[in-house]
Write a structure and sequence with these properties.
With 145 residues, the protein is mainly β. The chain is built from 1 helix and 7 strands, in the order E-E-E-E-H-E-E-E. It has one helix at residues 59-68; strands spanning 8-14, 19-22, 28-42, 45-58, 74-87, 93-106, 130-131. Strands 1-3-4-6-5 form a 5-stranded mixed barrel.
Length: 145
């Protein structure tokens, strides 16, 4: 088989409100962290073990994420993994792996981050996926839910 696949699918909750910025050319970019759980058995009892994922969203979808998502909101997303290289203040090479999301489905509305019904607003697609071509923060210690 020729080629390769780079696809990520997540269903989780936001650890904090999305951070929206704009590039020098004016393109919107939102960053946020999503926690997923793995249920593991330890010493005869079950516990949830969180895994944190960095997410980047571009364009109008980034603006909608900022508008409709908040800490604790449940979200479904699809995207691809991307690793970026950057330099810290001391000039050392650093690497960041993140998910560049092209599809985001809002499962709880803004203000309902800790549960509630899916958002029914027309702007968000009423729970339907919102997709845009993908162009182009660390995990919190506190578990948001």
């Amino acid at each position: 088989m020729a080629g390769s696949v780079n696809k990520v699918i997540l269903l989780g909750r936001l650890g904090a409100d999305p951070d929206l910025r704009h590039t020098p050319s004016g393109q919107a970019v939102a960053n946020f962290n999503v926690a997923t759980n793995e249920r593991v058995q330890r010493d005869g009892t079950w516990e949830d073990r969180p895994e944190w994922h960095r997410v980047v969203v571009w364009g109008k979808l980034a603006e909608r994420c900022k508008q409709y998502l908040s800490k604790g909101a449940q979200v479904y997303l699809e995207g691809r993994l991307q690793t970026r290289k950057w330099q810290d203040r001391e000039g050392g090479d650093r690497y960041t792996t993140e998910i560049v999301a092209g599809t985001v489905q809002f499962l709880t509305s803004s203000g309902e981050g800790r549960g509630g019904a899916p958002h029914s607003g027309e702007d968000t697609g009423g729970g339907a996926p919102i997709q845009e071509p993908a162009s182009g923060g660390g995990g919190d210690d506190e578990f948001p839910f």
